[in-house]
Structures are given as C-alpha cells and as structure tokens.
Here is the input.
Amino acid sequence: MNRTAIAATPAPRPLVSAAFLDGLAYLSLVMLALVMLIPFIWMVSTSLKPVEYVLRAEPQFIPDPLSTNSYTDLFKLMPVDRMLLNSALVSVVGTAGRVVVSAMAAYAFSRLEWRGRNLVFVLYLLTMMVPRQVTLIPQFILVRELGWVNTYQGLILPGLFSAFGVFLLRQSFLGMPRELEEAAFIDGANHLTVFWRIVLPLSRPALATLSVLSFMEYWNSYLWPLFVARKDVFMTLPVGLAKLQGGPRALTQWNMVMAGAVITVLPILIAYLLAQKWFVRSVTLSGIKG
Here is the structure.
C-alpha cells in the first residue's frame, strides 16, 4: 500500500457521537432536577388538599379535589401576616446591613495598606471555625444586658458581622486592577469615592451572591429568633410554624403545615430568581484569588 492510499483512508468514526453524549448528559441532569423537585411538588400538592385526602395510601400529586382552605385556615389560626412582616423586615434590613459592613471591611482588608492586616484577617477568618451554638449563650447574655430581647435590633444586629461575607468580597476586590483607583486618586477622589463609585459597581456579582445567601440565612433562621423573639408580635415565620407543631397549640393537619412551608419557601425562591443573573455570574468569575 502506497502513501497515497494511506492518506486517502478515512479516519475511523467514533463509536458514540458527541451529540448523543450531550443529549445523554442533558437527560441525566433533567432527571436529577426532577428528583430534587419531587419534595417541593409534594409540598405544594399537599397544601392544596383537604385534610381527609392528605394521608391516603395512594400518593396523589395532582390534588382532587383542589382546595385552598389550608391557607385560609392557617391565617385564621395564627398571625401569619405579622410573622411575614417580621421575617421580611429582619431579612431585608439584616441583609442590607451585612452587605454594607462586609463590603467596608473587605475594602479595608484588600485595598488599604496597614500594619498587621494579613494577621488580623487570618484571625478574623478563624472565627468561621467556631460553631454558632458555642457563641449562642454569650451572645444572648449580651443582648439581654442591652435590653434587646423582644426587639428588632436584637434579631438583626448580631448577624451583621459575617467572616464569610468579608472573605467573599475581599476576594472579589483583590481581582480589580489597581490602576482604576490610582487614576481616581490622581483626579482628587478619596477612599470613600473609590469605594462607592468604583469598587462596589464592579463587584455586583459578588454583592448579589452575598445578598442572596444572607437573605436565605436571615429568613430561615430559627435558633436565634427562638431565644430573642419570645412575644408573638416579634416572632418570625419559622419560629411560629415550629411552635404550631410542638407547643400547646400542636398542629397535626399536614395540609396546613405544608401551606406554611410554601409561604416560607416562596420569598426565598423569588429572591433567588431576581438575583439569579448576578449569582451565576459570580460563581463563574469567582476564582478564589490572592
């Protein structure tokens, strides 16, 4: 066989095409997503069933008959509107405060030069290794001595300081070129101007990620509000729903329990959908630097 014949021999076809592998991968991802969604679908389905259809032997994803009485009965049984307002207020104000505090601390750790900066940052990060339960009692004693039990400041202020939030934003700030702030300083800007007009606008993906995570943490918080908010007027939604299942007003109607769970999950889903673009962008560009 001469060289011309060898060169004309077609390359062997792959046994499995790339399109087939891509389709198989997408199908696997869709199946996994459906498996993860089944508990949420069952939660919504149970919340729309009459109480006598909840514990049937045969599972039924599509309620028949369809009923919204569990939602109306839940609002009659407990002040869900007040608890929703408390949870929304604590989550929004706490998230905004944590983002501001973390951003200012991250700017000091990443863009300012001062003696012992790296050592202080490492010591600050070491606090992430301390379990939240260890600091719960000392933190409660401090809040009690300040007279913040059954107050909004007692619910919000202790959560403003987050080592993870400072770390996340510091890594984002370190990825910015120094030339931008140097040019701003030449034009007469100070650190506050650089922080507000240059650093923060360029860190929107990281800020959105921290906002979503902080909102979820505040909204789902149970242990700390259980200690601080003892009156119904300051009670958040997770604490209120838990008390319905374990207190003197014990609730065994699972359609109402699922209705409360739907009300609890819905704001988190909306918050994530609103910030999804920046959240995904932050995950894509995050590479932990320097």
The CA atoms of residues 183 and 189 lie 9 Å apart. The chain has a mean pLDDT of 84.
